[in-house]
């Protein structure tokens, strides 16, 4: 199954993607993780991305598309994938659509995790304490939420217009949210 998870920072995409990966037996592709790995490795790309990420802004579409093309060229994605963190704007959504058409693997499902803003802020503050991510500072969090509302929210409509969108309530225990996602995907699994 080819699946993309949509949702604001703190909506639980990463956590749910990690569980879905085991359930569906397909790789979890997180563009945030791919970028953080580049930063940790100190690559040229990582050096370019580091400050942009810490500020809460988006890394260039060109860099992201290159990274994704590279990732999708690996054999483990042939049986499907869970994409998390991409697309983050309409240009990325269109580029992804083209890329997937080109490799003959169109998206089956876009799942949006819906969580109210106050709860997002609370969750990220909790994670900041536990993990100390460079972009979890209050200023960066504000910027990330703003970028989400301005640039990423329209991507939800893109998938709605393509008839691929499923909205899932992201409030509740991790188990509850996971069950809701799996139920939302059930019809697709039956058709194959
Ligand atoms: P979150 O969903 O919690 O905001 P991610 O781990 O998905 O965190 O992303 C962290 C940062 O990595 C983003 O704020 C952005 O700077 C960069 N990034 C990740 N994915 C993309 C993307 N598709 N386009 C541009 N920048 C991205």
Automatic annotation (TrEMBL):
The reaction(s) this protein catalyses: AMP + ATP = 2 ADP
Residue positions binding AMP: 31, 36, 57-59, 85-88, 92, 133, 144
InterPro entries recorded: Adenylat/UMP-CMP_kin, Adenylat_kinase_CS, P-loop_NTPase
Residues that, per the record, bind ATP: 10-15, 127, 172
Transferase listed as a keyword: yes
Chief location category: cytoplasm
E.C. number: 2.7.4.3
GO biological process: AMP salvage
Localization (cell): Cytoplasm
Gene3D superfamilies: P-loop containing nucleotide triphosphate hydrolases
Gene Ontology CC entries for this record: cytoplasm
UniProt feature coiled coil, ranges: none
Keyword Nucleotidyltransferase: no
Record family assignment: Belongs to the adenylate kinase family.
Chain's role: Catalyzes the reversible transfer of the terminal phosphate group between ATP and AMP. Plays an important role in cellular energy homeostasis and in adenine nucleotide metabolism.
Protein's name in the database: Adenylate kinase
Originating organism: Lysobacter soli
Gene: adk
């Amino acid at each position: 199954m080819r699946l993309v998870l949509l949702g604001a920072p703190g909506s639980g995409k990463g956590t749910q993607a990690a569980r879905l990966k085991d359930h569906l037996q397909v790789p979890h592709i997180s563009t945030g993780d791919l970028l953080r790995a580049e930063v940790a490795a100190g690559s040229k790309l990582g050096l370019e991305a580091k400050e942009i990420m810490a500020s809460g802004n988006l890394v260039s579409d060109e860099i992201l598309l290159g990274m994704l093309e590279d990732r999708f060229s690996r054999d483990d994605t042939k049986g499907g994938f869970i994409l998390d963190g991409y697309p983050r704007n309409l240009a990325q959504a269109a580029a992804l659509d083209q890329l997937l058409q080109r490799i003959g693997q169109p998206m089956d499902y876009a799942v949006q995790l819906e969580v109210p803003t106050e709860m997002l802020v609370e969750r990220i503050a909790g994670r900041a304490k536990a993990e100390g991510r460079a972009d979890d500072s209050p200023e960066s969090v504000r910027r990330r939420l703003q970028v989400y509302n301005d640039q990423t929210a329209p991507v939800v409509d893109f998938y709605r217009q393509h008839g691929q969108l499923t909205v899932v309530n992201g409030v509740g225990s991790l188990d509850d949210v996971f069950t809701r996602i799996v139920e939302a995907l059930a019809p697709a699994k039956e058709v194959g």
